[in-house]
């Protein structure tokens, strides 16, 4: 890990290989399977509070040790007299057309509590995306080309005014050409304990995790947020006649269609359809497994392409997966769903890089469903074990700062 020297007038630090490739891939999986529309056009985001609210609290576990390492590095680098608190943690992806002009991270009255920012990159400029260079207005280094695993740490005030170039468009979705996405992990830190993210997270965890009586896979099934949080349209227009639902969009990029067995009444509110049980189809085959909702199917599918596409193997015994050839009526229902929730498939293929070229095996996909349940249960157990210590530390911390 190579650290670059800090300038006194523009305190900043670049850490190479701060995250391992495996850490980056796990965080990327979480973002692809759980993200919603972001805070500005052409941006997608995942926050820890959102994960808890959508019954995916177990997915915050991979963040925690990395947050601690970042906090310790910031305190060490900047000689902080008091222990810092984390104000905000989020995964953010920038797609074609996303950019941000010159600004500091405390440039609003309600952001003045911010002292330090850490950005960790989950993929690489020139390999995974084009555009998206990070520029500082003054000082050195002037420009940063994001590279997988690197971290950039800097003060959040005007001494480190910065901007991010516009992301370029993707090339062919079926080639290995460069895409138009970068995956930074954003981490804001401050000295003001009243803005401590952990205090809020503990309350949410107590409400959404501790009340569960059984630690079984079906208690960990995701509950989607409101549909408007998943609707992508150019320039974030509210028009539902253009764009697509990002859950179905990501599944489409993975080579899947969504099938609902019930007949659709176009006179009713079809947004409720995405909360209902469904199946996945791939090309002309209907997979037999029934998912509790579309977000559940997306998490499993992304898990498969995170784990299975690389190794073609899972630790669980591989059982024969089942699929049947789609009938004409089933294909028509899929077409109906796509006409409602995938208004612009060309836009989908521009925004999300296709993984359809990856090897797919029905038997290993069936095994991935069990593996996903084991993974979720393992992380959930870690939450139950760590929450008492987390709460105790928070209580000591609050007394220390007279909160």
TrEMBL record:
GO terms for molecular function: metal ion binding; oxidoreductase activity. Keywords: Iron, Metal-binding, Oxidoreductase. GO terms for biological process: collagen metabolic process. It holds the Pfam family 2OG-FeII_Oxy_3. It comes from the Eukaryota. Residues 73-184 form the Fe2OG dioxygenase domain. InterPro entries: Oxoglu/Fe-dep_dioxygenase_dom (IPR005123), P3H (IPR039575), Pro_4_hyd_alph_FE2OG_OXY (IPR044862). Belongs to the iron/ascorbate-dependent oxidoreductase family. This is Fe2OG dioxygenase domain-containing protein. It comes from Gossypium tomentosum.
């Amino acid at each position: 890990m190579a650290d670059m020297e800090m300038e006194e007038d523009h305190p900043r630090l670049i850490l190479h290989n701060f995250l391992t490739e495996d850490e980056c891939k796990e965080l990327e999986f979480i973002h692809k399977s759980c993200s919603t529309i972001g805070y500005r056009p052409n941006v997608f985001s995942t926050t820890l509070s959102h994960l808890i609210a959508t019954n995916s609290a177990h997915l915050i576990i991979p963040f925690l040790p990395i947050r601690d390492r970042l906090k310790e590095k910031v305190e060490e680098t900047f000689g902080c007299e008091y222990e810092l608190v984390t104000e905000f943690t989020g995964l953010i992806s920038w797609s074609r057309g996303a950019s941000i002009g010159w600004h500091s991270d405390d440039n609003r009255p309600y952001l003045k509590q911010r002292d330090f920012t850490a950005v960790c990159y989950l993929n690489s400029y020139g390999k995974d995306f084009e555009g998206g260079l990070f520029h500082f207005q003054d000082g050195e280094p002037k420009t940063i080309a994001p590279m997988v695993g690197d971290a950039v740490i800097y003060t959040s005030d005007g001494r480190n005014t910065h901007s991010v170039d516009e992301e370029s468009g993707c090339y062919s979705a079926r080639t290995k050409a460069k895409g138009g996405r970068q995956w930074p992990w954003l981490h804001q830190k401050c000295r003001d304990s009243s803005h401590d993210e952990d205090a809020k997270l503990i309350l949410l965890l107590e409400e959404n995790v501790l009340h569960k009586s059984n630690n079984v896979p079906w208690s960990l099934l995701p509950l989607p947020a409101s549909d408007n949080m998943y609707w992508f349209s150019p320039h974030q227009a509210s028009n539902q006649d253009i764009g697509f639902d990002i859950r179905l969009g990501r599944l489409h990029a993975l080579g899947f269609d969504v099938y609902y067995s019930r007949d659709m009444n176009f006179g009713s509110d079809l947004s409720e359809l995405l909360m209902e049980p469904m199946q996945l189809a791939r090309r002309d085959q209907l997979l037999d497994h029934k998912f509790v909702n579309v977000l559940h199917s997306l998490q499993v599918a992304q898990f498969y392409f995170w784990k299975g596409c690389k190794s073609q193997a899972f630790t669980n015994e591989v059982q024969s997966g089942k699929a049947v050839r789609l009938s004409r009526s089933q294909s028509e229902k899929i077409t109906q769903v796509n006409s409602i929730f995938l208004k612009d498939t060309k836009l989908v293929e521009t925004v999300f890089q296709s993984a359809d070229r990856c090897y797919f095996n029905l038997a290993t996909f069936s095994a991935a469903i069990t593996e996903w349940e084991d993974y979720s249960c393992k992380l959930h157990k870690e939450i139950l074990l760590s929450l008492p210590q987390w709460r105790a530390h928070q209580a000591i911390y609050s007394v220390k700062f007279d909160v």
